Amino acid sequence: MEIQLQYIHDSQGKQEAVIVPIEQWQAFWQDYQRLLQYERLKKGLKEAFREVKAIRSGKQKSVSLKEFLDEC
Q1: What three-state secondary structure class fits 64?
Q2: Number of domains comprising the chain
Q3: What is the rounded CA–CA span in Å between residue 51 and residue 18?
């Protein structure tokens, strides 16, 4: 998909803003939201693996499923 951008310039010709067609902006925004969701999931999984490692090494106390769900 080729993005059809329009630029707004000041009186000296310096670019000040960009106009993006709304359909392309909405598609971009949806992709961006999915990326944020992916990053949150990835961060959560990394933390979970760190916690498992700490529990297995005895550096962190394990929690029951009920305790875990009560935290949420």
Answers
A1: coil
A2: 1
A3: 45
User: Residue 1 domain-assigned?
Assistant: no
Domain containing 25 equals: 6-71
What is the pTM for the complete model shown? 0.64
Asked if residue 14 is part of any domain, the answer here is yes
C-alpha 48/C-alpha 68 separation (Å) is 12
Q: Does pLDDT of 72 surpass 80? A: no
Dump pLDDT digits (tens) for 12-27. 999 999 999 999 999 9
Pairing of β 6-9 and β 15-19: antiparallel
- β-partners of residue 9 are 15
